[in-house]
Design goal:
4 helices, 81% helix, mainly alpha
């Protein structure tokens, strides 16, 4: 039962995290005056790399796990959804550059 509760919690928070990532990506593109899609993809790649590095460092330190143990402990459904959210997080700056007036919080 706890595994189902953990899965539900992770899946329920995911839409909010994706929405916030979308909004912030628009602000980043605007604030840093990203001029093309290539720069936006570089920013997204850097951002997701830093996010993964920090998350792994904190989680592995607090839970005293190896990377293999951590990955094995992930729920397959919630973990897959999380991986999808990381891909979205990485490409959102490029999408916000391509569609600057998109909802919510237009970049301009």
């Amino acid at each position: 039962m706890p595994a189902l509760i953990d899965r539900a919690a992770e899946l329920l928070e995911l839409p909010l995290m994706i929405l916030v990532s979308w909004i912030v990506a628009g602000r980043v593109v605007h604030w840093f005056r990203i001029v093309n899609i290539q720069q936006a993809l570089q920013v997204g790649g850097l951002a997701v790399s830093v996010l993964i590095l920090i998350e792994l460092t904190v989680v592995l330190t607090i839970r005293d796990l190896s990377v293999d143990d951590y990955l094995a402990s992930r729920d397959p459904i919630a973990g897959s959804a999380y991986l999808l959210s990381l891909v979205l997080f990485a490409i959102f700056p490029a999408l916000r550059k391509k569609f600057p007036g998109s909802w919510p919080c237009p970049s301009k």
